[in-house]
């Protein structure tokens, strides 16, 4: 549908070249998304390699975490503390569309590779800086790890049991949010370049990204003058909306309005709850959620979670059993959507790695390359760079 001969079978970012100075997670996640979509990503690494090459889990001496977020890239080793290394980096930047770096502000300037320098030398370059707190502001020079951003953003304060301590979310969501917004910023800047003919400096902060990923909390803090607090597995504003216990586990429900609550009450055998003064509105149901939960879990106590979900689904109530991460990735839905695909690795053999989740009509999924060995493409890239310099009219 909507395909034509010019786009069918082509990945959206084919022909785009990305020079990737980033390491660890946020920047590499950004460039992995771009590599999935066909961009040529040249990963610049120091002689010791990206830190993630040395962080587990490991298999046959290879970091699987590095494999996951550096899929489909090329690796070149450059010592940016040497004149030859920085000269090669500058020459490569002149032949690339996008540059991504996630050093602390000022580090790329010390290498002679800062945005002010390269964006003047290469006016069409889209220069993406990913950092913990951005290029401006009082916290710009603070070290930033995911747990620090979660703590400072308010996410940790909202996560956990109502009567328990603050908790981290279950994955590195600050880094992932930063990587997604960095990719978004790069794409917008490339689109704008098509109209203006010029690139620009994209300044992306993990802190900004994670704060912006919580729109409900933002509404409550900025507009309602509230301070959101921990609510465990229940929704802060609606009920029943969250996780409840059955005989053999837990299940989730999401009831969003009075009509749906009436169907829900009938499905659990207590239609009179829809007329109970404590439960006449969403706000009242949330206020009286503990009493409502007693009715729900009394009904579910003699049922399996799967059976509870089947009954509620029949009543058109949004509901699900809880899945482990392994169950989610192995589900028929994840497989049907192509959320992961296999690549061949020279040491690990066949490896299954994630793939960016957006589907584009006519663009294939799968068929990607594994993460590169350290410096695997150094000689080829430098040789091509020399040839381009010697014969500029041919390129």
Q: Please state the structural category.
A: alpha/beta
Strand content: 5-15%
**Helix segment count?**
17
State the shape: elongated
CATH level 3 topology of the largest domain: Rossmann fold
Q: What is the residue-mean pLDDT, rounded to a whole number?
A: 93
Q: What is the share of helical residues? A: 25-40%
CATH architectural grouping of the largest domain: 3-Layer(aba) Sandwich
- Poorly predicted tracts of residues: 1-5
The largest sheet, given as strand count, sense and whether it forms a barrel, is: 6 strands, parallel
Strand order of the largest sheet: 5-2-1-6-7-8
Oligomer: single chain
Distance between the termini: 35 Å
Given this structure, which CATH class of the largest domain is correct?
Answer: Alpha Beta
What's the helix-strand series?
EHEEEHEHEHHEHHHEHHEEHHHHEHHEEH
Q: What tags apply to this protein structure?
A:
alpha/beta; disordered N terminus; 38% helix; Rossmann fold; formyl-coa transferase, domain 3; 6-stranded parallel beta sheet; 15% strand; 17 helices; 2 domains; 395 residues; 3-stranded antiparallel beta sheet
Description:
- It is a single chain.
- The protein has 17 helices and 13 strands.
- It is α/β, with parallel strands linked by helices.
- The chain has 2 domains: 260 residues, 3-Layer(aba) Sandwich (Rossmann fold), CATH 3.40.50.10540; 81 residues, formyl-coa transferase, domain 3 (2-Layer Sandwich), CATH 3.30.1540.
- Strand 3 and strand 4 form a beta hairpin.
- The longest helix is centred in the middle third of the chain and has 24 residues.
């Amino acid at each position: 549908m909507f395909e034509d001969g010019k786009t069918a079978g082509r990945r959206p970012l084919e022909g785009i070249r990305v020079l990737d100075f980033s390491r660890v997670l946020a920047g590499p996640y950004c460039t992995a998304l771009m590599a999935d979509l066909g961009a040529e990503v040249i990963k610049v690494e120091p002689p010791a390699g990206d830190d993630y090459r040395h962080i587990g889990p490991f298999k046959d001496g290879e970091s699987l975490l590095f494999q996951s977020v550096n899929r489909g890239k090329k690796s070149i080793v450059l010592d940016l503390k040497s004149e030859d290394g920085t000269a090669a980096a500058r020459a490569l930047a002149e032949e690339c569309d996008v540059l991504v770096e996630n050093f602390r502000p000022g580090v790329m300037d010390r290498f002679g590779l800062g945005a002010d320098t390269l964006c003047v030398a290469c006016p069409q370059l889209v220069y993406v800086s990913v950092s913990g707190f951005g290029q401006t502001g009082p916290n710009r020079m603070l070290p930033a790890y995911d747990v620090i951003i979660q703590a400072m953003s308010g996410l940790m304060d909202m996560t956990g049991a109502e009567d328990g301590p603050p908790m981290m979310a279950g994955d590195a969501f600050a880094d992932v949010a930063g990587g997604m917004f960095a990719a978004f910023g790069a794409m917008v800047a490339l689109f704008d370049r098509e109209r203006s003919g010029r690139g620009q400096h994209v300044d992306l902060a993990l802190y900004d990204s994670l704060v912006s990923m919580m729109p409900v909390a933002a509404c409550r803090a900025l507009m309602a003058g509230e301070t959101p607090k921990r609510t465990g597995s229940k929704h802060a504003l609606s009920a029943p909306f969250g996780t409840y216990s059955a005989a053999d586990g837990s299940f989730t429900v999401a009831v969003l309005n009075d009509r749906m609550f009436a169907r829900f009450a009938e499905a659990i055998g207590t239609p009179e709850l829809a007329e109970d003064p404590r439960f006449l509105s969403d706000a009242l149901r949330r206020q009286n959620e503990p009493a409502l939960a007693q009715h729900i879990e009394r009904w579910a106590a003699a049922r399996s979670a799967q059976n509870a979900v089947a009954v509620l689904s029949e009543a058109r109530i949004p509901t699900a059993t809880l899945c482990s991460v392994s169950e989610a990735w192995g589900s028929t839905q994840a497989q049907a959507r192509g959320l992961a695909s296999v690549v061949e690795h020279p040491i690990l053999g066949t490896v299954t790695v994630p793939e960016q989740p957006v589907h584009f009509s006519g663009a294939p999924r799968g068929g990607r390359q594994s993460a590169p060995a350290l410096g695997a493409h150094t000689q080829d890239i430098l040789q091509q760079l020399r040839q381009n310099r010697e014969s500029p009219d041919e390129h």
